Amino acid sequence: MHSAPAPDLCPNCLKPEHLCICEAVQPIDNGVFLLILQHPQEKRENLGTAQIAHLQFANSMVKVGLSWPGLKRILGREVDPKRWGVLYLGPVKEGGGPRPEVAAVDRDGVPLRDSAQILDDLEGVIVLDGTWSQAKTLWWRNAWLLKCRRIVLNPQFRSLYGQARKEPRRDSVSTLEAGAFLLSRLESDKTILDTALKPFSLLLKKLRQPRPRPAPSGDSAGGEGDGEETGGGEG
Predict the structure, then answer these.
(1) What pTM value is reported for the model?
(2) Disulfide engineering: 88 pairs with which of 71, 123, 150, 187, CB 3.0-4.6 Å?
(3) Is the CB of residue 143 less than 8 Å from the CB of residue 156?
(4) DSSP states of 88-138 as a string?
């Protein structure tokens, strides 16, 4: 008995051909650099959004692995980690006033008084890509991240994932959504978010569409099935 062949991947978006989203890609010339550190297991996830984010943002990079010596080694140039933010995975301490959409926090998750100035001075931001547990693994295996500014988000929207992929918290969003939301606020251009999410919307639309099964080999053509791809994984 032969196993089904692996689907052909689009060399650009790295999705199976029936889920290719390249037609919806609209590169954005972002000023703040987006660096995505991807857990190796997330690379095989059809619903992953790291490569989509890389295609959508001209100034971006995806690095796959578990640990790196430092930001300088990744970027190949000198860098001041204090001008780089990393999305913080820990809890945020609630203050007396309303939570801002984006804030810089200290090691205890307390928003910093000079948060606005820190955000204005950022050269780049780092997003950890994977399930919640995989992202935490990346956090703990790369101690140099502690030198970067910790950034927290308070998005006022639900992830487009919906029921397609389980999320650990109601306010969890995809890597693409987090990066696009953050950049739209740092660059004071809320249209960035809508533009960046168009390929993601197309991916989810294609995922819901029936996909005909290949005809069996042999003399008889056989019939077409109505198999449908479904998403899986947590993150």
Answers:
(1) 0.83
(2) 150
(3) no
(4) --S-----SSPPPSEEEE-TTSPBPTTHHHHHHT-SEEEEEES-HHHHHHH
Q: Which long-range contacts (CB under 8 A, 24 or more apart) does 153-160 make?
A: 153/87, 153/101, 153/102, 153/178, 153/181, 153/182, 154/99, 154/100, 154/101, 154/102, 154/103, 155/101, 155/181, 156/101, 160/197, 160/200, 160/201, 160/204
**At residue 114, what is the residue type?**
D
| CB-CB contact of 200 with 52 (8 Å) | yes
The tokens of 117 are what? 């100035």
- Summarize pLDDT for 50-59 with one digit per residue, the tens: 999 999 999 9
What whole-number distance in Å separates Cα of residue 181 and Cα of residue 100? 13
- Written as six digits, the tokens of 35 are 């660096």
Other Cβ atoms closer than 10 A to 160 = 17
Question: H or E stretch including 60?
Answer: strand 60-64
pLDDT digits (tens, 9 = 90+) for 151-172: 999 888 877 865 454 554 444 6
Q: What is the mean pLDDT of residues 25-33?
A: 97
Per-residue tokens: 36: 């995505």
The sheet with strand 60-64 has its strands ordered as 60-64, 33-38, 124-129, 84-87, 149-153, 102-105
- Mapped to the 3 state alphabet, what secondary structure does 142-203 carry? CHHHHHCEEEEECCCCCCCCCCCCECCCCCCCCHHHHHHHHHHHHCCCCHHHHHHCHHHHHH
